Amino acid sequence: MESNAALSAFTALSQQTRLDAFRLLVRHEPEGLPAGDIARHLDVPANTLSTHLAILARAGLVTSERHGRVIQYRADVDGLRALMLFLVKDCCAGSPELCAPLISELACC
């Protein structure tokens, strides 16, 4: 992941509703959620949520698929993985044992 893509993802996640929506979608992987369910979970108007989801999609964090009249949203796990790797790629100055606690925390996920 390039710095500009990471900055786009961080910018998208730096707003409360978008962060909450993304975290909700991560919890509902791999099925995802319809837009209406996301709006109800977050108590956000559908038109407002649509804008937030579009920003997350442009940042490479969310994908969508239309099923008739319903749009199903999912967290883009590859985008999340790339962002996380961007953050820790050069971690620990060549001492991987320093990253062991982080890795063990993520192992249960």
UniProtKB/TrEMBL annotation:
One of its GO terms (molecular function) is DNA binding. The keyword Transcription applies. Keywords: DNA-binding, Transcription, Transcription regulation. PROSITE patterns: HTH_ARSR_2. Pfam families: HTH_20 (PF12840). The keyword DNA-binding applies. InterPro entries: ArsR-like_HTH, HTH_ArsR_DNA-bd_dom, Metal_resp_trans_reg, WH-like_DNA-bd_sf, WH_DNA-bd_sf. Residues 1-95 form the HTH arsR-type domain. This is Helix-turn-helix transcriptional regulator. It comes from Sandaracinobacter neustonicus.
